[in-house]
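Listing S7. Sequence submitted for prediction.
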Amino acid sequence: MSGAQEAVARLRGVVSGAVSRGRQAAVRAREQGDRFRADSRELAEKVDRRSAKPTRDDVTSDELRASAAAFRQDAGLSVPALPSGEELLAEAQKAEEVSRATPTPFRKAHSPAGLETYGEDDDDDFSQQRILG
C-alpha cells in the first residue's frame, strides 16, 4: 500500500468513528429531550388540574418564562397559557388553609358503621338501636 492509500484508510476510520459517536450522541439527546418533554407535559397537566403543590423554589422567574415563550413561538411551537408562579403559590396556600380549617369527621372505631355508642360495656352497646326499633 502506498502512503496515500494508508492516509485515506486512516481518514475513513476516523470519519467512521466520528459518525458513530455523532449518531450515539443524537440518540442520547433525542431520548433526553423525549423524557424532558414528557415530564414537562405531565407537570403542565398537574398544574392545569391544580394537583401540583408548588414551593417557592419551584417557581420560574418571569424573565425565564418570557424567554421560553419567545423561543417556543419562534420555533412555531404552541405556548400554553399557564398561571404565574405567584398565582400557583397563592392557590396552594389558600387550598392548604382550607384543608386545615375543615374538621375531619370522627367515627368510633369499635362501632359498626361508625354509629355513636353509649357505654363501655358490650351489654350497653346501643349502636344497633336503629335495627331493633
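Caption to Listing S7: primary sequence and predicted C-alpha cells for the chain studied. The chain has a mean pLDDT of 77. Residues 3-49 form the longest helix (47 residues).
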